[in-house]
Amino acid sequence: MNDRYPTGLRALPAGLSLLLAAALSCMAVPASAKPQPPAKNTAKSGAKAPAKPAARPAAKPAGKAAVKTGGKSAPSPTRNAPAKAAAAGVAAGAVAAGTAAAAVGHAPKGEPGLSAAEVAALHQHAEQGEASAQYALGSLYKRGQGVAPSAETAAQWYEKSAQQGYAPAQSELGLMYANGRGVARDDAQAVQWYRKAAEQGDAVAQNNLGLMLAEGRGAAKDPAQAVQWFQRSAEQGEAAGQYSLGVMYATGRGVAEDVGQALRWFVAAAGQGHADAQFNAGMLYAEGGVVDRDMAQAAHWLEKAAEQGNAAAQSNLGVLYANGQGVPASDEKAARWLERAAQQGDALAQSNLASLYASGKGVERSLSQAYFWMLLAAGRDSSLTAKRDSMAQPLSAAERARTERQAAAWKAKPAP
Predict the structure, then answer these.
(1) Is 251 within 8 Å of 215 (Cβ atoms)?
(2) Within 10 A of 292 (CB to CB), how many other CB atoms are there?
(3) Domain residue spans in the chain?
(4) C-alpha separations of 182 from 133, 147, 150 in Å
(5) pLDDT tens digits, one per residue of 375-401
(6) Cα–Cα distance measured from residue 274 to residue 392, given in angstroms and rounded to the nearest whole number
(7) How many Cβ atoms sit within 10 Å of the Cβ of residue 4?
């Protein structure tokens, strides 16, 4: 089986480093820590009109499963975002969601659009002091549905509703303070509003409050308390809470390390479409050890995450197809997944794709393409310099110069 993969494409078991995204890097925080869009709405709530998002993991030393927490080491916030993780059997890669996960928000139920008359009626009810209408109106302004988008106006309506004790509005207001959208960023205010909603049973707020406590944002760092809130969120079926709880079990933060429990919660969130949880579940199955190694399950979950644009999952899935591990061997599918990850800037995938072009497996042999992808990979990973130089040797000076210009102009493409 191992003789199927091209030179430079490492087999899965070798050097498998499990990066479960550092959640907190991705949490409700990412939007404020980095210029990213605010956390996505992903909660469930009866009358609260919430929806669910996705999140990410944290890194541990190779040999032990590392939990995704933000792309690298704490649980990720309620907004499910792609996180980054180390690629299996290749070099460590970034995990999705987040991408580290960002704090989650509520997504309204029902039809996406409202007529002008319906918006006017909602506005009237909100002006009359109806908390649910104020919350709904704030959500329209947040999304720009039926009205001009305005984070500031959204925050004003959320606050009116939150002051009346409406949990979904309290949760959304906390998210806006955490991300600095529509209001000045204020972690203490974020924690205050998350806590009010969490104590009323809002699963999204419970996860986001846990994220703040896990990282010590707006309150003293308290991983044990964070675990309690993640547990409450997870038990209500909130995918982001399940993911965050899995990260804590995988990393032993605030709770005894338990990879079996981590896998249980990752699988629960993965089943709801959480990309980072899918990636982590796949990596844990590929790693084996505490849990039985199961390459078919590893491939199943990595493919789910890969289909959502997770570059690390795409890279690892390409290796599985090249080696025929957990899936029927297919050089063509290996090349397809490696290219998708390589286009997103994954250095490991770029290196492996270069090897495929050099050998002509799964793609038409092209030494210039091999050099192109290895140039990009070596630009991110200096350990690949020797391979880059060896791939340049068969090319003419003109071919090298042309390929180097192409590589210099190349830009990574975000996941679709």
Answers:
(1) no
(2) 8
(3) 330-415
(4) 19, 16, 8
(5) 999 999 999 999 999 999 999 999 999
(6) 41
(7) 17
